[in-house]
Amino acid sequence: MEYVTLNNGIKMPAVGFGVFQIKKKDECVRVVLDAIESGYRLIDTAQSYGNEEAVGEAIQKTNVPREELFITTKVWITNYGYENAKASVEDSLKKMQLDYLDLVLLHQPFKNYHGAYKALIDLYKEGKIKAIGVSNFYPDRLVDLCLDTEVIPAVNQVEVNPFHQQEKALQYNQKYGVQLEAWAPFAEGKNGVFNNETLSGIGQKYNKSVGQVILRWLVQRGIIPLAKTVRKERMLENIDIFDFELTDEDMQLISDMNKDTSSFFSHYDPATVEMICGLKR
Question: Which catalytic residues are annotated (predicted)?
Answer without folding.
Answer: 49 (proton donor)
